[in-house]
Amino acid sequence: MSRAAADAPIAISCGEPAGIGPEVAAGAWRALGAEMALLWIGDPAHLPDDTPVRVVTSAAEAHGPCPDALPVLARDFGSPRRPGVVDPRHAQGVIDAIREGVALATAGRARALCTAPINKAALIDGADFAYPGHTEYLSALAGDVPVVMMLACDALRVVPATIHIPLAAVPATLTAAGLEEVLRITHAALIRDFGVAQPRIAVAGLNPHAGEDGKMGGEEIAMIAPLLDRLRGEGLALRGPLPADTMFHAGARAGYDAAVCMYHDQALIPIKTIDFAGGVNVTLGLPFVRTSPDHGTAFDIAGTGVAEATSMIAALRMARDMADARGAGGVGPSGGSIWEKART
Ligand SMILES: NC(=O)C1=CN([C@@H]2O[C@H](COP(=O)(O)OP(=O)(O)OC[C@H]3O[C@@H](n4cnc5c(N)ncnc54)[C@H](O)[C@@H]3O)[C@@H](O)[C@H]2O)C=CC1
Ligand SMILES: NCC(=O)COP(=O)(O)O
Fold first, then answer.
1. What span, in angstroms and rounded, lies between the C-alpha atoms of 98 and 196?
2. How far is the CA of 184 from the centre of ligand 2 (A)?
3. Which end of the chain has less neighbouring CB within 10 Å, N or C?
4. Which GO MF terms are attached to this record (predicted)?
């Protein structure tokens, strides 16, 4: 893993062409093109018609801000974009753009990777994609390193301990070893990437009322509480297992830096409710920085011009701040996280 120059671009993989990815990438470039270097990887014909493009052949040509045109590593996907309508012929190009972004970030030719949303079903149908999402694919590309999904906004960071699996599979999938790995990766990333010197992590229970002393489920007593006790013995600041229904109001949020939840919706419903427009999806544990908007492909509005680029903009800013933090050895860009600053 090589470190990128401070003026190297943040690579943006195109995501699903039929979705809003090309539109929010173009919108984010309009907002940020003068303040940071960006490099979009995809078929330039899929960008909105009014997007000025500068085709480059390498990331080296995209150093420094480019406010006049969006630098593009151009790839020919073979057919036009039809908003809202998936073309299976695009699937391999979408996957390749992610892989190229990872290669650039790993080689230090890009500062970070910001991925536009993919449609998982489209990639499975069109190219036998073997992963349920970016998170698992990026882990594989990085050499099967253990990774954790985090969604973050100014008011909240959440981590689902299990991700894209059926709800019925959650109890059997949750293990002490798996949860311990999630907690350790989250703790380390809060220090390294977010400038939180002494992370405080709240941990949700699995069952209603965190099991109500075993009357409403046993996972808290059998597995979660003993694990948290052991890790507290090592000095980790952990609270829980907490009833999930009362841990996300403003007063509760002030007491922790991240909430580790037991399943996808337990984590993502609160953050997308609090700040859908500004939420960012981050993969923790990778050797390079990866962020993404919190939303999906939004086929229902693709091509209509109403897609908001706010989450993509937040994702690019967070990628830059995380790259800065890693460059500074884990101290946040201004000596502290935006959450710490917001509390003071
Ligand atoms: N990082 C990624 O690659 C992600 C991909 N997805 C994928 O996206 C597809 C669609 O998922 P959904 O659950 O429908 O969620 P979605 O986020 O695509 O859409 C949910 C609702 O929010 C609206 N919306 C989303 N982004 C918006 C924006 N930027 N501005 C204005 N309105 C916006 C949509 O119009 C829709 O009504 C699925 O295939 C899913 O797997 C979902 C989340 C993240
Ligand atoms: N629900 C979050 C989501 O689908 C994003 O997944 P990933 O593609 O970032 O792994």
1. 29
2. 21
3. C
4. 4-hydroxythreonine-4-phosphate dehydrogenase activity; cobalt ion binding; magnesium ion binding; NAD binding; zinc ion binding
247 located within any domain: yes
Residue type, 291: T
Model pLDDT for residues 92-111, shown as the tens digit of each residue: 999 999 999 999 999 999 99
Nearest CA residue ID for atom 31, ligand 1: 307
Containing H/E element for 31? Answer: helix 21-32
Q: Is the ipTM here above 0.95?
A: yes
What's the one-letter identity of residue 89? R
Kindly state whether residue 313 falls inside one of the protein's structural domains.
Answer: no
How far apart are the CA of 79 and the centre of ligand 2, in A? 26
Q: Which atom of ligand 2 is nearest to the CA of 268?
A: 1
Task: Report the residue among 265, 295, 316, 318 best suited for mutation to probe ligand 1: largest number of ligand atoms under 8 A from its CB.
Answer: 295
Tell me, yes or no, whether 137 and 171 share the same domain: no
The set of residues, in sequence order, having a beta carbon less than 8 Å from that of 344 and lying 6+ positions away, is none
User: What is the CATH classification number for the domain harbouring 247?
Assistant: 3.40.718.10
Q: Is the pTM of this model over 0.90?
A: yes
